[in-house]
Write a structure and sequence with these properties.
Radius of gyration: 27 Å
Bound molecules: flavin-adenine dinucleotide
Number of helices: 19
Distance between the termini: 76 Å
Largest sheet: 9 strands, mixed
Strand content: 25-35%
Shape: globular
Structural class: alpha+beta
Helix content: 25-40%
């Protein structure tokens, strides 16, 4: 016990590959006073039995970043820490059975190229040149990834551990964290060998992360599934071929049939993601055992029959091989299948790096990201896709189970841009959900809230299958067009439950807010858009500010930003200010279009001549509401904010008054189209920490006359030196598809930028992309190309003004 560390700067709980990578990267960043606690032996959780596949492929930009970094790290790690290990870069073949699948591949090839990865697509008759044992029936092509491979997960963990120790970090094995408490601004971690005081703590407890989170009083959204792979005996044919060519087969993923298969020694290893998947330890009669270190679940081959039969037909030599071993181990799933990396919501100096379903291939990148969170408070890449604060607390065990099963069973499914998965729905319903449903609303969730995406007309296809398409003109297209044109020509009403909103009150609220945002604080009675930057001037978040009184503001922000923005505000709150989260108290209707004033005149005595960017209290249907004169749709309009209990009456009054004026309900798809035409940015697409406020073209929201605000020095330096990138609006001669997030922009044969969102503008009848472009090219009229699913489409940089109503005359009407 004498040498047991009683203090450390940072303690990592959990010695799987992720925890050890976090330790390694913390030490590398100079935080060498670091201790890792492992309840058993390193790798005892999910790591020891993992198949060890290390793909770079991902349809998510940030996950691809992490996996690319991991592969790069692993290539040099053995030499860097002097711990030779088995890492085979075999390449991989990802099979496609449909045209839609090839479209997905083309998108990933484009993203990969931008990240420096040279992925390419093979025609069906080319696949056998890299994978000779394959039958090509039913295939439309394949994606070849030369960087894919497999690594020994235990060796990888030990190599990282060796590297971390060499830098001074300590690893305490057979030493579980059993309690935590906060004392005098520090964390105190209890273990059977004594207590450790530390500044920062990290939960990296893998499938036990929920148990560890409970020590912090937090309920972590996750579920434990079981995943199996089958090891087959030596296949003589394969052994002969391997000896002849001197390397292993590439890893095979038949994603439409839902399995991976790779060469393990001279046999094969087959890992299916089956539909009839199984969660464990979810009911009181099946509690998680006190200890499951180095243990497995019993084999359960029945549920894999479809994939086994499929694999044998695809690679017939598999049918001749004897099954030698089945590995069935615990694998954690968050409700969206991504890990949790980042600040632990609501607690100071506590972080999470857990719930990894692909922890072997992501550990390298995850360690880097976690270390940046801890040591710098921010990350190089925007990592919202993995931020624990994307979950806000409504995700109860039933939700986690339903979503976990759904994600597992669809692990390789195509993520179509307008498709929303059916499980875990109806968690939060608007006060007028029954009314919008009766009007034909088709819903999609945002922070659990079901919001109308579009309103189906009689005969429109509202099936789940119908929304699984890359096409712009999906079943919703005609209805969305009508909705947009109604907003343009008469008026539309959008039910928008779940806006996040925070009231901040206190004598010095204006001074405090001025130091938090880059721009001006609106005066009493007025509204403003506010940008919150980090120390590097990058965009942390955007909020609408309603200045309620000299000492009071209401901050309104995206539904999904609730936990993130609350935490940011709380963390930076000045003494004497009171912050209240009023999200659940209010609901919102957006009433917009040239007839919106006429509609509102019928239901309220409010002064509707008050200018754009003002707010007032008004009465509608006997209820007190807040009327905010703004419109994300870019027309004359108001946001009607009512208390939830009053919302049905307010909705009914507006609908009745709107009848004579052609008021039409519209949904989020229409709103997205309308906002693109105005160049209004969306959070975590166009607005993210990947860009600074100035790069984002938001210079008019930066007030350098203020002597102090977060990010000022960095933004000033950028202003003096000039921005490397600039926000632009493009008109694109697109074909059947709109450009998705992170489509590459080309000029003169070079990649010069990326789109951050794209879609069809029905008022301007054009495909629009918002994006970031090399600054010297951000000149109106510059001809470019946007690569949309592999096809380069002509595009032109537009003037730095909205495409629709550039002078804002309609909004100000
Ligand atoms: C069959 C199977 C095959 C897989 N194949 C792949 C693959 O090919 N590629 C891939 O990328 N991923 C794969 N995975 C997933 C991969 O295994 C996990 O994502 C990864 O191992 C997670 O690592 P981790 O460090 O987060 O968690 P773990 O490895 O589970 O480590 C967590 C550690 O925390 C320790 N711990 C828990 N509670 C405490 C406590 N209170 N105090 C101290 N220590 C504690 C545990 O003992 C454990 O060692 C596979 C999973 C399975 C089941």
């Amino acid at each position: 016990m004498a040498d047991f560390p009683t203090t450390a700067r940072v303690v990592v709980i959990g010695g799987g590959v992720v925890g050890v990578s976090a330790l390694y990267h913390l030490a590398k960043a100079g935080w060498t006073d670091a201790v890792l606690l492992e309840r058993n032996e390193l790798t005892a959780g999910s790591t020891w039995h993992a198949a060890g596949n290390v793909p770079t492929f991902s349809a998510s930009w940030s996950i691809m970043n992490m996996q690319r970094y991991s592969a790069e790290l692993y290539r040099g790690l053995g030499a860097a820490v002097d711990y030779p290990m088995n890492y085979h870069v075999t390449g991989s073949v990802r099979l496609g059975h449909t045209a839609d699948r090839l479209t997905e591949f083309k998108r990933v090839v484009g993203m990969g190229r931008y990240q420096g990865l040279d992925l390419n697509i093979l025609a069906p008759d080319e696949i056998r040149s890299v994978y000779p044992f394959l039958e090509t029936h039913g295939l439309t092509g394949a994606l070849y990834d030369p960087y894919d491979g497999d690594i020994d997960p235990a060796q990888l963990t030990q190599a990282l551990a060796k590297g971390a120790r060499a830098m001074g970090a300590k690893i305490e094995r057979f030493c579980p964290a059993t309690a935590v408490r906060r004392e005098a601004g520090e964390w105190v971690i209890t273990t059977p060998r004594g207590e450790i005081r530390c500044e920062v703590v990290v939960n990296a407890a893998g499938y036990r992360a929920r148990e560890v989170a409970r020590l912090f009083g937090r309920d972590l959204p996750m579920v434990v599934m079981s995943h199996q792979y089958l090891l087959f005996d030596t296949i003589p044919e394969l052994a002969v071929w391997s000896a002849e060519v001197g390397h292993k087969l590439p890893l095979l993923r038949d994603v439409d049939a839902s399995y991976y298969m790779r060469q393990e020694k001279m046999g094969l290893n087959l890992g299916p993601y089956e539909r009839g998947c199984r969660a464990h330890w979810v009911t009181p009669d099946d509690p998680m055992p006190e200890d499951f270190s180095f243990q497995l679940f019993p084999d359960d081959l029945e549920r894999l029959e479809t994939q086994i039969a499929d694999a044998m037909a695809r690679v017939p030599m598999l049918a001749k091989a004897g099954l030698s071993k089945v590995i069935n181990g615990p694998i954690p799933y968050a409700p969206d299948g991504n890990p949790l990396i980042g600040p632990m919501p609501g607690l100071p100096n506590a972080y999470e790096a857990c719930v990894f379903t692909f922890g072997i291939c992501q550990a390298g990148g995850a360690g880097k990201v976690l270390a940046e969170w801890v040591t710098e408070g921010t990350t190089e890449w925007d990592m919202w896709s993995c931020d624990p604060r994307r979950f806000t607390g409504f995700e109860d065990p039933a939700y986690c189970l339903a979503k976990g099963r759904e994600v597992y069973a669809n692990e390789y499914a195509i993520q179509f841009p307008q498709h929303f998965w059916p499980e875990g729905r109806d968690c939060k319903l608007s006060a007028v959900h029954d009314r919008t449903r009766a009007l034909g609303a088709v819903y999609g969730p945002a922070n659990g809230w079901e919001r109308a995406l579009w309103y189906a007309r009689p005969g429109d296809d509202t099936s789940d299958e119908g929304s699984r398409t890359w096409d712009r003109e999906g079943p919703w297209f005609g209805a969305v067009r009508e909705e947009c044109l109604a907003v343009r020509d008469s008026a539309g009403i959008l039910d928008l439950p779940g806006f996040s909103r925070f009231r901040v009150k206190g004598a010095h609220v204006a001074d405090w807010l001025a130091a938090q945002i880059t721009g001006k604080v609106p005066s009493v009675g007025r509204l403003g858009l506010a940008y919150f930057a980090d120390g590097k001037g990058r965009i942390v978040t955007e909020m609408s500010v309603a200045r309620l009184a000299a000492d009071e503001v209401m901050l309104i922000t995206a539904a999904t930003a609730q936990a993130h923005d609350r935490e940011w505000l709380q963390k930076h709150l000045a003494a004497g200010l009171k912050l209240t989260d009023e999200t659940d108290l209010w609901s919102t209707q957006i009433v917009t279009g040239p007839a919106s004033r006429a509609v509102l005149t019928k239901v309220t005595e409010a002064d509707l001549s008050r200018p754009w960017l003002t707010w007032q209290v008004a009465t509608i249907a006997g209820a007190e509401v807040m009327l905010l004169r703004v419109s994300f749709a870019g027309e004359l309009g108001w946001e009607v904010h009512s208390h939830v209990a009053d919302t049905p009456a307010v909705w009914d009054a507006l609908m009745a008054a709107g009848k004579a004026h052609g008021l039409r309900p519209f949904g989020m798809f229409a709103l997205n189209s309308l906002r693109l035409e105005k160049g209004y940015r969306a959070w975590k697409g166009d607005l993210s920490t990947d860009y600074t406020v100035l790069q984002g073209g938001l210079g008019r929201f930066v007030d350098f006359t203020k002597t102090h605000f977060r990010g000022r020095a960095a933004l000033l330096a950028e202003q003096q030196a000039g921005s490397a990138k600039r926000f632009v609006t493009l008109r694109v001669e697109a074909g059947a598809y709109d450009p998705p997030y992170m489509s590459t922009i080309w000029h003169d044969g070079k990649v010069v930028g990326e789109t951050t969102s794209g879609g069809w503008g029905h008022r301007v009848d054009a495909c629009i992309a918002l994006g970031m472009l090399r600054a010297d090219l951000a000149v109106p009229g510059t001809a470019l190309e946007v690569e949309i699913f592999g096809q380069r489409c002509a595009a032109v940089v537009q003037p730095d003004a909205p495409l629709w109503d550039p002078a804002n005359a309609r909004i100000r009407a």
